Amino acid sequence: LYWPSVAVGQYKGLEVGRREPTVEDAQIDEEIERLRDRLATLETVERAANTGDHVVIDYVGSVDGTEFEGGTGRDQLLELGSGRLVPGFEEQLVDSKAGDERTVTVTFPEDYPVPELAGREAQFAVTVSEVKEKQLPEADDDFASEAAGFDTLDELRQDISDRLRQIDERALEREFEDAVLEAAVAEAQVEVPDKLVHARAHELLEDTWSMLARQGISKESYLRFTGRDEESLAHEAEPEAAAALKREAVLAAIVEAEHIDRKS
User: Binning pLDDT at 50, 70 and 90, where does residue 12 land?
Assistant: First the structure.
């Protein structure tokens, strides 16, 4: 496959906007909430369970009246709304109380990794033994000390602000570099062979398959579930592939024109 042909245009002295790094109070509040959640405790409560509560359960699963391997659990701690279990399971335990016995009926997804269960309806005999509520610590000086070793909450907030600003500054640098490259691409004339674009589009798809595989989803399952085919997905990815190839080609041409040693 041929590499794109490039006629580099103006790339020096390009004017590109650049914003200043910012940290909003809401961002600091979000970090504080994450720390509070990390230090949260679970306290047993004598009431019905709500979404966000935890329940301690025993369960036995069966399909067509026959128990299946891996379908039994004892003293399992489950957060309602976490999405850990089969879709529909947790929702049927909302409003349950300690001592309740419930039959939970769910249908396993078509792409469930256990073929014997994929697409099958199952019943779970569930016994709830406890309902637990998450208790978050107060955001005060004691919390700041326990969470991060600071004397005051204000010191903790300042530290979070400083770290978020550093992260934003690094992101800004990447944004600026990308913007400069995009401006240079706009000034250049680049011809990218169709075959090269199509090949890169398939490479992008391979990245997608790898990402899905890490989530336990196979390429075949994804295509079957969405009703798509690989070639149509590759065709949709071609604009992104062409843009990436143009950026790479222009950058390589500028490096060559400026005699930049990319190894240094």
Answer: confident
pLDDT at 151: 97
- Picking from 34, 23, 16, 19, the residue whose alpha carbon sits closest to that of residue 166 is 23
3-class secondary structure, 93: helix
157-179: string of b/e by CB count within 10 Å (b at 16+)?
Answer: bebbbeebeeebeeeeeeeeeee
**Rounded-to-integer distance, Cα 31 and Cα 37, Å:** 10
- In angstroms, the Cα distances linking 151 to 131, 138, 144 are 35, 15, 7
At 84-138, the pLDDT tens digits run 889 999 999 999 999 999 999 999 998 888 889 999 999 999 999 999 999 999 9
Q: What are phi and psi of 217, to 5 degrees?
A: -115, 125
In whole angstroms, what is the distance from residue 202 CA to residue 207 CA? 9
Q: Is the CB of residue 103 less than 8 Å from the CB of residue 76?
A: no
Taking CA atoms, 120 is separated from 65, 109, 241, in Å, by 12, 8, 40
**Token pair in block for residue 201:** 């589009």
Whose tokens are 């009246």? That residue is 65
Helices (H), 188-229: 194-214, 219-226
Residue 249, H or E segment: helix 230-257
Start-end of H helices in 149-193: 153-187
For CA atoms 111, 112, 114, 118, the dihedral sign is negative
> Are 160 and 48 a contacting pair, CB within 8 Å?
no
155 Cβ neighbours under 8 A, 6+ residues apart: 144
Predicted structure pTM score: 0.59
